[in-house]
Write a structure and sequence with these properties.
about 525 residues; alpha+beta; Protocatechuate 4,5-dioxygenase, Chain B; Glycoprotein, Type 4 Pilin; Dna Ligase, domain 1; 3 domains; eight-stranded mixed β-sheet; four-stranded antiparallel β-sheet; 16 helices
């Protein structure tokens, strides 16, 4: 028995020695993290290694964290509401890090489960999009997991013949990589979908990629577009002017920014093509604008700079822009927004309904067989009438009751003659009336455990709100946030609209529901 124990101890000692020898005598914390355990499943990590650490930013973890925190500390967080997307530069941090920080500062401490990063390809010429064959992206700050949605997106892009499967695309590409340390310092518990966009693309290709991505964006998704702006000088083979260089570069950049701010996707695409502006991320920006087209998202330029200013030398200069989109974003409960022709049809239908009903008491005949499926979809909607900028009537259905086109017919009439706050609209007034339509998603309860949590979860300009208690009910459309931007004031007015005490929203018996709206008007058309 003693002999058996001695042999057993010798065997254990040998195993421990061999394990130490094979590992090279490393301490536990020095061993690279190659697996991640989720419940009882061990997943092997295939990391996309950093390509520009030590060149574009520090390769040392503590120094990189210090640098990023310093840039963020110099930026101000604006009161913009829910951030939907960011355009950020991707040059070396010494040149563009401070500009990038202005955009990422806006998401500091916010909650996003998924970040889709779109960047241009600088080293490979291909058609469509590409995602690295990896489970994680690695930076000196650690590993960031690639979302499972990446594989679904790849499958969808392959169906459209817009996917390039070639690891050489990713080996040296920096456009996605340089954005990740800023995400690591501002967010927690998030995954990424890192997509490189190829330079061999038509406008239609970019719109098709946008349509694929729309299906994977929800309220907890952030889109980051990586792009530098004008590359000026002989090094970039772009010298369209030689006088007043800094002013002319800025003029060129801001011409593009105007189209971005107005969500004018075709205007931006054509502007870049017409001027030859060397905006390296022009295709990712086009995709983002296509995703946001038709939404009520607003854009804001937060910071602008150039390497020419940093170096005090404009012989060769690259421009950097920090731009954010905020507000409603894309309504993912109904991602197929009404297109412009459908919007125009409903506005024209509402106008014809008012003219016919107020003059003859009749409503227009509609051939349903000629309508798109979205116009026949059963959903809620509101019609709002304004006269010289002042409200003249607003009535609608919060819950789906009938096909959308019928909902607009009925509520155009209701807004004109049945809004108890106003006398009926007269036919002679119609030439001064402007029509606005809101197509609604189905209201859903907003789960919250306290008034403070309710305030935290509400998103101004995006959420329409319903308060319901007993026989009392009231709603404000998302656009009412423009008049009542303070959350407490918004809810108090909504309580009083429903003939409840103004702090009814704090009552556990008051049900809170939210919905989203696709809003468009004759003025916009």
């Amino acid at each position: 028995m003693k002999s058996y124990r001695i042999h057993f101890l010798i065997l254990i000692a040998a195993v421990i020695f061999m394990a130490f020898f094979i590992s090279g005598g490393e301490k536990k914390e020095d061993i690279p993290n190659t697996t991640i355990k989720t419940s009882d499943i061990v997943q092997r990590v295939v990391a996309r290694e950093p390509a520009v650490a030590g060149m574009f930013y520090s390769a040392e973890k503590k120094q990189l964290a210090t640098d990023v925190k310093k840039y963020l500390g110099n930026a101000k967080k604006e009161k913009l509401g829910h951030i939907v997307a960011i355009i950020a530069p991707h040059a070396g941090y010494v040149y563009s890090g401070q500009t990038a920080a202005y955009g990422f500062k806006q998401i500091e401490g916010e909650k996003y489960k998924k970040v889709i990063i779109l960047g241009p390809s600088h080293h490979a010429y291909f058609k469509g999009a590409s995602i690295a064959n990896a489970t994680h992206y690695k930076t000196p700050l650690g590993l960031v997991k690639i979302s499972k949605d990446a594989q679904k997106i790849i499958a969808d892009l392959k169906k459209e013949m817009l996917y390039a499967d070639d690891e050489r695309i990713h080996a040296r590409e920096h456009s996605l990589e340089v954005e990740i340390p800023f995400l690591q310092e501002t967010l927690s518990d998030f995954e990424i979908v890192p997509i490189v966009i190829g330079p061999d693309a038509t406008f239609e290709d970019l719109q098709n990629i946008a349509q694929v991505l729309k299906n994977y964006i929800d309220d907890e998704t952030l889109v980051v577009v990586s792009s530098d702006f004008t590359h000026y000088g002989p090094n970039y083979r772009y010298v369209p002017f030689s006088d007043n260089i800094s002013e002319n570069i800025k003029k060129l950049d801001f011409g593009a920014i105007e189209f971005i701010e107005s969500l004018d996707v075709k205007g931006f695409y054509d502007y870049v093509k017409r001027t030859g502006a060397t905006i390296c991320g022009r295709y990712p920006i086009t995709i983002l604008l296509s995703i946001l087209e038709g939404s009520k998202t607003k854009g804001k330029l937060l910071h602008y700079d150039t390497s020419g200013r940093v170096l005090n030398d404009y012989t060769n200069s690259v421009s950097y822009v920090s731009f954010v989109f905020y507000g409603e974003g894309v309504d993912m409960e109904n991602p197929d927004f009404l297109d412009k022709s459908e919007q125009e049809f409903l506005l024209k239908l509402a106008r014809e309904t008012l003219e016919s009903y107020l003059s003859e008491g009749k409503i227009p005949n509609v051939d349903e067989s000629r309508l798109s499926e979205r116009l026949k979809n059963v959903q809620g909607g509101f019609v709002t009438l304004t006269k010289h900028g002042n409200l003249r009537g607003c009535i609608g259905h919060i819950l789906p009751q009938e096909p959308l086109y019928k909902c607009i017919i009925d509520n155009a009439i209701n807004a004109a003659i049945n809004d108890p706050r106003f006398p009926p609209v007269k036919y002679d007034e119609l030439k001064h009336i402007e029509i606005e339509i809101s197509a609604l998603t189905v209201p859903k309860p907003l789960e919250h455990s306290s008034p403070d949590e309710l305030l935290e979860k509400l998103v101004p300009l995006r959420d329409g709100v319903v308060l319901r208690r007993g026989f009392h009910q009231s709603t404000f459309l998302p656009q009412v946030w423009e008049q009542l931007p303070d959350k407490v004031e918004f809810l108090e007015h909504l309580c009083m609209k429903g003939e409840m005490e103004k702090d009814c929203w704090k009552d556990e018996d008051t049900e809170v529901l939210i919905y989203h709206a696709h809003v468009f008007s004759e003025n916009e058309q």
